[in-house]
Amino acid sequence: GWVIFEDIFLIYSCVVAERDSRVLAGRQAQLESINTSIEYQIQERTCELEAQAKCLAKEIDDRKMLESQLVHAQKLESIGQLAAGSAHETNTPYQYVGDNTRFLQTEFASLMCVLDKYAENLEPGDAPKSWQERASELRTLLDEVDYDFLREEIPQAIEQSLEGIDRISQIVVAMKEFSH
């Protein structure tokens, strides 16, 4: 009886142990299958993340390049605005220096006519004229060239031209200092 009891107990223990071993083996197989599946998913996700990282790195590089181009364009725009501003600031003095120089050029010819007439009246070889005739000719010529106007305007034109040149010089010096 004792041997039969022991045999039943051992057979039962073997059956339970085999069942537990199968359950453990099934679980082990299931865990290995899950691990393999998870590793595959991790590899897929890693590949996806690497692709996204490359894509993001390219996008960052593109944005940096665009930002650099934008900064360069803004610098060029600023330089253009600076050039336009300096051109505008120097244009006014250039205009009145040019206008005054043309005025002086025109009126210098008128003054030369007057001086030529004076020189002509001093020549001894000409027919003798009275002081009244000479004075009348000179007054007529002085009235023609508007001597009083020229006497007033020529010094002002010279002064304005010098002032314009000084202003242009100041602008050039300011631009030079700004550029450094």
Description:
The chain has 180 residues and is mostly helical. Helices cover 93% and strands 0% of the residues. It has three helices and no strands. It has helices at 2-122, 131-144, 147-179. Helix 1 packs antiparallel against helix 2 (131-144).
Q: Outline, from the CA principal axes? A: rod-shaped
The overall pLDDT average reads 88
Uncertain residue segments: none
Structural class: mainly alpha
Q: Report the sheet-strand fraction.
A: under 5%
How many separate helices?
3
| Helix percentage | over 70%
Report the C-alpha radius of gyration, rounded: 53 Å
Question: Termini separation (Å)?
Answer: 115 Å
What is the N-to-C succession of helices and strands? HHH
Number of strands: 0
User: How would a crystallographer describe the biggest sheet?
Assistant: none
Short note summarizing the structure:
With 180 residues, the protein is mainly α. The chain contains three helices and no strands.
Topology:
Blueprint lengths: L1 H121 L8 H14 L2 H33 L1
Q: What structural keywords apply?
A:
180 residues, mainly alpha
